[in-house]
């Protein structure tokens, strides 16, 4: 029997773990993450660069990083009437709030015709529905703290066919934790019917831990419990292999210099023609990536902290270090 399958069977038998055991295997807790890593390595003055997706988009474009094209923005309620002019020559697009979180307020349109605007689940919307959604974004319905917001319209990502069967309706993305420019841990988030087609683990998406050395699956979870098959498609999740892995790692590691943040999460999608594309940055990445990988972050973070020459290392050298020390095969 495949070793990954055996490990999965063992995981099913041990869903509950004593806190002392978690500490022994180096699981990073929220308080330690906030104090020892986020507060220490992320200057607060830089938070707006990632908390505001429009500012993120601006620094990404300035740095020449591969990312979805910006079609337009709507900042005031009186501009909602301009939405049709913004999207009329675009086959597919995504509307999202600049200050949203957890996938809230993201509306993806896969195409349009005489009947209206089509979503991935087959639902057809009218222009009035899109305008109402934009108006709700501006009113702060989806933003942190309910403050007024900005609507961002981006080009639709054409996700790579290699992920067929691994996701339900939505676009899968890869979260990479980058510490001081070193990619230390990664997972892919796969949408499900429970998550309503969104790659959000708290809403029921599947998290697949990835070997930092080659992008292959090492473990999969849904609702923090191990799973072997995708709940909607039946695809074996341990067969997942992310292509263009070296390019993806280079993109994530380069976000350290671009953002100035020492501890961050990079969300990357794979477009079938443009390759890895940066979707978002997160200055307070969650801890569930440890559950998806079945391994704690702390030993990897401390190994990077122990380096005395980290600042002199190039992106390629940092990636090589991560592959050597953090791969499951190392």
UniProtKB/TrEMBL annotation:
Regions annotated as coiled coil: none
Organism superkingdom: Bacteria
Matches recorded under Gene3D superfamilies: ATP-grasp fold, B domain
InterPro entries: ATP-grasp, RimK-rel_E_lig, RimK-rel_E_lig_ATP-grasp
Pfam family, one: ATPgrasp_ST
Cellular compartments per GO CC: cytoplasm
Any one GO BP annotation for this protein: SOS response
PANTHER family attached to this UniProt entry: BETA-CITRYLGLUTAMATE SYNTHASE B-RELATED, RIBOSOMAL PROTEIN S6 MODIFICATION PROTEIN
NCBIfam families: rimK_rel_E_lig (TIGR02291)
Protein name: Alpha-L-glutamate ligase-related protein
UniProt organism field: Methylophaga sulfidovorans
